[in-house]
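A student in our group prepared the protein record below, which I am reviewing. Here is the record exactly as it was handed to me.
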Amino acid sequence: MAMPSALDELVAALRCLPGVGPKSAQRMAYHLLQHERRGAERLAAALTRALQTLHPCARCNNFTEAEICERCLSPQRDPTQLCVVEMPADVNVVEQSQAYRGLYYVLMGRLSPLDGVGPRELAFDRLLARASDGVVKEVILATNLTHEGEVTAHYLAEMLHARGIKVSRLARGLPLGSEIEYADAASVAQALLDRRDY
């Protein structure tokens, strides 16, 4: 017996979430319908509101309800530093470190030619305009340390260097609190290469 079409549509919609396969989507749908009907209504309303009110900030490309987000307008931020990250969640992680007080630019992805994601899809021209505004003195590339993240950082570094903009990259190596004995060889090698004077 086939599922009712509304249930089938709900399961299909839940599958668009990262890491959610058909079985997980089906479990979520049944849970929402059986035990969390109010939660499901709240989720639907919040999603509808977010889709209607959130859009990219004109300066940093992160989600905001205003033309320019509060962080970009804050006088407490250092406008001479621009940290480039892949996704909005990356901004949250950098902010939690409390080690950075500059501004951000969110790419909303990374270069991935096999998936059809190139410089045009990520609007690199907007980033270049932002970094070339005469105020920014340093661009910190904080893309992920994946193959795609490294390619993205290299591509951006070349473009920014060509415009005479100082570019730096996050250091790589051993995480704080880790033991060398349990670290993988690539992380140890990178930590040795990125060592600094003490």
